[in-house]
Amino acid sequence: MVIMSDQVGFKLRDTADMDVILDVILEDNPAAVSARRPGGYFELDAPASIVVDLAKISARLERPFNETDFMACIASFYGRASAQDWTFRLTSDLLTVEDYGHERQ
Fold it and tell me: What is the chain's mean pLDDT, rounded?
C-alpha cells in the first residue's frame, strides 16, 4: 500500500554547529519541528518544504558554511533535494530541470 504525504525531513547529525543551524532553519520554516533523538542526531520535519539559507547560517557562524558543509551534517532525508545559490531546499514537489536554473539544450 502506498500512502501519499507531503511531509519532508532530515535526520541531522548532532555537530558542534547544529544548535545554530537548527535555529536558522526553524526561524525560516515556521511549520518545521525538530526533536533530538537518541544516538546523536536530530529529526527535522515539515509539511511541503524546508528551505535552508546557508548564507544566513554562515553569517551566524561568522565563517563560510556552504552546501558541502550542510550535506556533511545530513545522515538521511526524505523529499526531493536541490542546492543552488547558497540555498538547500527539500520539497515534496516534483522538481524539473527549470527548478535548477539550467537551460535545456
Answer: 89
